[in-house]
């Protein structure tokens, strides 16, 4: 898991989700709450980023009156808007791509209910070449690339390093969010890939 080695503290608007965004991964979002419409507008206008954090303990993405506040995971991922469009139902759809990982020190809500996090960027280890034992996982990623949903996301799947392969598969496969979060929290690229292999073995047994 992450040793929490990190750099300078920054403030980052947060988008809590029931799924996990990994570095280099992409996901589509349907935007309808005013606080997030404003967030996306400001992000595109100012060419900035925001943070995606997993809602631990099964918190709701949209809080109803009287519901408790969300429990935000300790580690999150910087999100950049890669594409956007108006969906058939009239809502705003955006595709975000994961950037740097961060450690969430604290979070507060502004007047609109938007979470603002105090974060520090995690120090990343240099990625390493794919080991020979990763052949099947690499082939699986290429097969996923033929799926129409994956093609719409426009993810870069020509990966040749262990960490990138683990991140891409953990993003695209229908893993439990807790398993994807486990992958997100591992610093060493080979350890991340080995953990994914163990998770897939456990799910298939």
From TrEMBL:
Spell out the Gene3D superfamilies in the cross-references: BPP1347 like domain, LON domain-like
Which SMART domains does the protein's record reference?
A: LON (SM00464)
Where would I find the Lon N-terminal domain in this sequence?
9-204
Q: What is the name of this protein?
A: Lon N-terminal domain-containing protein
Question: What is the native source organism of this protein?
Answer: Zhongshania aliphaticivorans
């Amino acid at each position: 898991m992450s040793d929490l080695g990190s750099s300078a503290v920054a403030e980052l608007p947060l988008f809590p989700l029931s799924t996990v965004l990994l570095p280099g991964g992409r996901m589509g979002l349907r935007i309808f709450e005013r606080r997030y419409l404003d967030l996306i507008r400001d992000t595109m206008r100012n060419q900035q980023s925001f943070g995606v954090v997993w809602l631990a303990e099964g918190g709701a993405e949209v809080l109803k009156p009287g519901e408790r506040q969300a429990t935000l995971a300790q580690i999150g991922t910087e999100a950049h808007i890669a594409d956007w469009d108006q969906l058939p139902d009239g809502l705003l759809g955006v595709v975000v791509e994961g950037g740097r990982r961060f450690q969430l020190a604290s979070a507060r809500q502004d007047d609109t209910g938007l979470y603002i996090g105090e974060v520090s960027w995690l120090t990343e280890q240099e990625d390493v070449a794919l080991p020979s034992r990763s052949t099947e996982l690499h082939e699986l990623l290429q097969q996923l690339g033929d799926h129409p949903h994956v093609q719409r996301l426009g993810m870069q799947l020509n990966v040749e390093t262990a960490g990138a392969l683990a991140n891409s598969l953990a993003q695209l496969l229908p893993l439990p969010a807790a398993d994807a979060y486990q992958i997100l929290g591992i610093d060493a690229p080979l350890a991340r890939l080995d953990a994914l292999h163990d998770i897939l073995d456990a799910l298939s047994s």
